[in-house]
Fold these 3 entries.
Entry 1:
Amino acid sequence: MSTCNEMQGRLNDYVDRTLSKAEAQRVEAHLESCPACRRAEGELRALIDAAGGLPKALMPQRDLWPGVAGRIQREPRSGTARRPFTQTIPRRVLPFAAAVAVTVAALYASAVWRTPAYVKAEAHYMRTRAQLLAAIEARGERLLPGTLQSVEANLRVIDDAVQEIRAAIQDDPDNPRLVRMLMATRHKELDLLVGVIRTPQPIGGAP
Amino acid sequence: MGRRTPVDNQPDDAFLVARARAGDVAAFEQLYRQNVGRAYALCLRMTADAALAEELTQEVFVRAWQQLKTFRGNSAFATWLHRIAVNVVLSERRTRSRRAARITPMRDVAALDAPAAPLSPGVRMDIEEALARLPEGARTVFVLHDVEGYRHNEIAAMTGIAVGTSKAQLHRARRLLREALR
């Protein structure tokens, strides 16, 4: 017969199912005759269940992104310089479709103005933005250099504005005007990208 | 990875990762927003210090950005990021320990591993609160094993302790938590 002292260490292995069959049977035999160890086993299982059930995500008290963004802009990846966005688009080409415009319209028609939903709205925005960038990539070499520079400059201005509005939302998360302002700024960015796509191609096209 | 996958993969991850790898900060921000809660929860539970956890969470994402080219997509982005988070916390701890070793006489090693505050018998407390009061070594193993689902051999490889030590720390953590939560 095992003693309760011996059981203390083995109970952990028993509930973790790491004992051999024979050892597990010895533990079970002891548990049948020992209320104290049965209680200990119950506590152990309850604790493990509670730990496994803890929320996997906890949100920090403040938005940490501005700090991350600041650092990744200051500390570029080793061996890579920061490039204009038009050079960072992958070589693969996705066709631009009318569905993109529909997505843009649907996103903003959905009027997801409340604070908890704006992050979700931005996820939709990201997908649409990526499609637009891919579409620009499809005809990137046919755009005039001046157009590209102008687009890049405007995108930088918009990025700065987004960061400032985000900071304001952090200070006043329940302010619907700020969220509307964020969405409107994002909308301007999409308008800008759509405008690039609609720009008539130069005569003669790409070399 | 252990018994539970830390986070289910998001359908857009591969696309966002590709964009971020190409230098798209906005795409990386989206990955940040999808994963920051997981990273912060791990940092907070392992450090029991909200300010330090925030600092380390930022470090996790900066490091992820810098190492994105090494992400091959063999696992979910969240799983890859989670491993970076564990490494960042453990790395900070090693740095802190080395710093402490230079200024603290090591006469009583056990004292360095003592809880920040004694667990009060008879006082029922929340598991998060009790977890925060555990000694650092026991808390680390408990969080990695019982909360995050890593196995002892994985914990041993990540932390540099023996498998037996990992088990001993886990049993100690569970005993202290049971006492605190009674």
Note: Chain B has two domains: 9-104, 108-182.
Entry 2:
Amino acid sequence: MELYRAHVLICGGTGCTSSGSTNVLETFTKELEKNGIQNEVKLVRTGCFGLCEEGPVVIVYPEGAFYSRVKVEDVPEIVTEHLLKGRIVKRLLYHDSVSHDETIKSLNEVGFYKKQMRIALRNCGVIDPENIDEYIAYDGYKALAKVLTEMTPEQVIETLKASGLRGRGGAGFPTGLKWEFARNAKGDKKYVCCNADEGDPGAFMDRSILEGDPHAVLEAMAIAGYTIGADQGYIYVRAEYPIAIKRLSIAIQQAKEYGLLGKDIFGTGFNFDISLRLGAGAFVCGEETALMASIEGKRGEPRPRPPFPANKGVFSQPTLLNNVETYANIPQIILNGAEWFASIGTEKSKGTKVFALGGKINNTGLVEIPMGTTLREIVYDIGGGIPGGKKFKAAQTGGPSGGCIPEAHLDTPIDYDSLTQIGSMMGSGGLIVMDEDNCMVDIARFFLDFTVDESCGKCPPCRIGTKRMLEILDRITSGKGEEGDIEKLETLAKNIKASALCGLGQTAPNPVLSTLRYFRDEYEAHIREKRCPAGVCQALLSYVILAEKCKGCGLCAKECPVGAISGERKNPHVIDKSKCIKCGACMEKCPFHAIEKR
Amino acid sequence: MKSIKELEEIRKRALESVNLRKDSKGTRVVVGMGTCGIAAGARPVLLAFLEEAQKRNLKDIVITQTGCIGVCRLEPMVEVYMPGEEKVTYVKMTPEKVKRIVAEHIVNGHVVTEYTIGAVEK
């Protein structure tokens, strides 16, 4: 084992990869060699650190120096100053990681991490996901060893039940109960499946776990296999996650080489294998029955339940299906005990939840918080608030199946039940923040547009009903809304929810219902006054030049692509509304802020 | 993998490779590597520490560097922090001195007084 004096951890999650961390890693490799210190300093490509907004992120140990937004040009300086001479390059450090007295705070002291608690993400950004040894160093596969040698399947189920763990895919079904159903089901062969078909717009929790700590999922699936009596597992992962697929494949290969998957694991006679199945990008395949049909090679369409997958799942055999994040919690529960897990969170929601923060927020990224944390803490303390000093309007959770939470409910503790109560849902963990510039009718239209696109078309309520709802919303946002539209939307929503075949259709009206609940006035303004209060819906907007501010410089007229602006030089100009295409180019160009959007 | 013992062996071996990323409570060796330190030969000293630690398979030790400690004329300087003990500063270091410090101080707990700043400055 080589001993290194410094470790340079470079984030290799999708966020940082797209902001250029691969080039940064290559430059580090070159620079270390140039300075002849490649044998003293170890480069590690890790999973997601969570602070995607500040990527590419680089952390140097033993100092724990947190460099953010590292560019290729910065690398030579970090190598010659920090790694060679031991002088931390302060100007490149993440601003919040430096205290007032100029010392470096430990990561847990940084505002973004302070209120977080990492269980599912514990190894993300800490280990090299492509090296099984590093996972083992952090107690990896110890839970599997414990289960196989010391616990009966019943004890595993009891532990999960006592821990209070609920499904992290969104619905929140008690995991221990699900495992018990699958164990008690009769069948010649059983299967363990992992749902990694993360499809909600703005959600990337599961991807980050697979990219940063793939072995945690493999280990938990093997534990599940032992518990329910299965010897085969499938991970159903979207083909749009190339990095996750690559790391999963490497992880499965390494686990097989070590005999942690395969035959006679730990000499106990227990056999378990895992294969990958790639999804082709259909959102509906995240629904359990559609997912299983797709694993079998059939068209990804849902079917009525019962029978439930626990009795009749993949290849009509008893099947256990859990989400990635649910699995990632399980080895920790086995190792630390049910009481430990149950001590975290609220009365009915135990443990932590991972959220993907996005939208109008400063720290876009991945956070894991104990259940019961309030939305205010997530948005302001962890997320760093809203850019540009704008006002918070709502947060959207649960993606196309969820709803929005208005400012009045910012202090609601986040758990399964309280979110349902205020008309939203936990969902898989996408959390999109919206400010005063977001039109809520338009947001509802966006999500409905998504579900209409992704509806598989099998059942009429979803295929036809959501389409009709979208048409009404299209009408409202284009200024053709009529009295009675809101009521029509409500009736359609109620009927679709009650009659659609699967979760996709049953939850599709939620974004409309929750925006109606909290922002009905915006709908009414669109319909009655033909006005979009947030200034988003183009058809309801008009651009005007304020005569008292206009100096007649003519810049706007030059910029206008359709020649809609005219006027004498040094005299106020005017916009011809019949020609204007509302592109906003003039407003951006005007040096005197004389153009307004109404 | 045929036994838990096997897993435990891999874990122990791998733990050392990631120790650096944990909050360490063990020994810290800090080599002064400002321009003065490097000019005076701090790099061979640093490498000697790494080599010795590896040869002796030392656990729970962090070898790192820092900027100029201030007494440039006594470079290369090295500070050794052992748990529960006062910091010891060695000066005018050479790779040969490193071997003795690792053997006597870090492994056996006896400070090599003649190499310390106190002895040299007298």
Note: Chain B is about 45% helix and 15% strand.
Entry 3:
Amino acid sequence: MNWRAFFALIRKDLTLHFNNRRAVIITIAVPIVIASFFGFIMGGASGEHKNTGVSVDVVDLDRGAATREITTNLLNDANLRVGVLGEAEARQAVVQGKVPVAVIFPKDFGDSAARAFFRPIEKPEIIVLQDPSRDVEASMVKGILMQHVMQAISKRAFSGDDGRKLMHESLDSLDGGAGLSDSDKQMLRELLTSAERWMTRAEASGATNSGPFGGGGMRLPYEVRSEKLTAKQETRYNGYAHSFAGMTMQFVLMAAIEFGVGILYERQRGLWRRLRAAPLSRGMLLGSRATSGALISLITLAICWGFAVIVFKVRIDGSWLGFIGCNVGIAVLAASIGLLLAAIGRTPEATRGIAIFAILMLVMLGGAWMPSFIFPQWLQKVTLVMPTRWAMDGLDGATWRGLGLGSALGAIAVLFGFAILLGAIAVARFRWEED
Amino acid sequence: MREVSKSFGTLRAVDGVSFHVNAGECLALLGPNGAGKTTTLSIVTGLITPDRGEVLIEGRRLAGDTDAIKSRMGLVPQELALFEDLSASDNLRFFGALYNLEAVTLKQRMAAALDLVGLGDRGQDKVKTFSGGMKRRLNLACALLHDPQLLLLDEPTVGVDPQSRNAIFDNIAALRARGKTVLYTTHYMEEVERLCDRVVIIDSGKVIADDTVTGLKNRATRACHLKIELANPDGATWLDELKTLAGVRSAGLNANELVVALDELATSAPTVLSFLTQRRQAFVHLQSERPNLESVFLELTGHNLRDK
């Protein structure tokens, strides 16, 4: 084996790549910049998303005590940024996309809602105007709204003179109420009478906020405690870990396109003929290319990860071996993709266009741009056939999830498996003779 | 080469080609673009496997990609097979390494090759700063590092200025003086006449002639060309009639220039001129040419070298 030739072939590729300012910017500087941006909006190094609240406009056409209280509570809710507007302005704001949601309390909403508590009458409507593209925020606002409305309306129904008046009205209407059996009417009468006695006693003792529906209205019967769970107690989520994994992989695969197209250009420029005229085996010519492609990818990955570790405190909290294995797998896969493009591509220009589209699909569906868990279930299953999805899961596991080697083995196996498969196709399809 | 053929799809690029090159000889493969010269060269170097026939180098067939006999050959491709972003020295170092040259030997050969092609003072400069002619010379130098016995030059002067072309001719002459064997493809007659001992004329993948330059010229000793610049050919409806005159081998009109191949200048030229006068064709300029390879090619193939 002519090792001198082998190393000369690799050295030449590395020199040409790293002497090419454009190539270095595209493969190293650009992924760092984009990953830094994505990492920042995905929670940054602390992993804490600063909750700026969902913007919502409130239109109070009722102007009663209940809707005033609801509006005040919405204004004080940390999850919302509330503006109080007229109906026309609120509709305009949603149409123009300035706010995702607006809530309209119609006239007499408070009284109607309190009556509807005890009687089978038509319920009043709260109108929720929403931007069609922002379902998630609309759902969130509806949930928060339900809590505040229930609290304010139940308070109105079970306290004060208004509450007592409503309860008497309800008791009076029981006798004439249709659709209820006598036994149901009797049980409801006992419930309302008991509730009224509770109100009277609570007011007399001054305990306005006690009981299930004391002076503060209905309360949520539970508290929520959140735990951010990773494999190790000391491991913290770092948004930059995922973004650097995704962006670095994307640009390494993009560099693989240039690597493959470079071979096609060498064909066009007669360089390939000259290399083939030397006493070198086909294995050496392709093997040296694959090696230099993988080395360039590995160096790129190392520099980008080094930046993430030093600047953004990304930590390999899981398996180091798993982390290295995934990165080597990505590098080898990139080299194989480059060879495949060189084998099946006809002209550099056409090959580049098609390959860019394919790589973008591969990285997008692999979860490199956004985590794959936000995809629909069926798409999440489909993406399991993509090596990029496995690579992302493997790198997430080895970094911020803090998982062990076992969790990365699947990813490593898939990456190397794809690399071998694509490499074998490339060798089989490679055009050794020029026509 | 013995009865070598190669097809690409329906195109028969090389069709039963046979020729040989003697040691120390310079053989030209002469033919128009698309004649099959480059394919023939690629078959000799083992880059293309022929469908039929065989190639023997120093008496034996090439045995695979790593056959040591490939080290005895140096290919100068028609394209500029250079890495533009590397220096001239780095290019030479790279191509030298492909032939497993040791560092000391490589250094000496690099210096010698650069000197030979007149780039001794430009070794550290990047190739992209070179002129077209300098790149052509470096292209040649890259094929010389491993000191091959057989040089395969595929149209090495394409697109170069006259000064660089002369420099390349001088380089090849110097290599011949060292006893190198040269297989040279071109479609320039003057290059063949200046450099080569023997010519193989190829057209449409077939060998049309295989002879020394002198031998080929002798095939056309009786023919000469009369070139007449006409004032106004005016459709030249008389051209077919001219071709039938006694002593006229062929005739063609290119813009205002009428070219007539004659058996004998002395006897046939007055006939032609008289014919043109009768047809009221005034001529502005008149010139006769001795037979050369161009006329030989025309006679052998029926078309000019650069017609295609």
Note: The two ends of chain B are 26 Å apart (CA to CA).
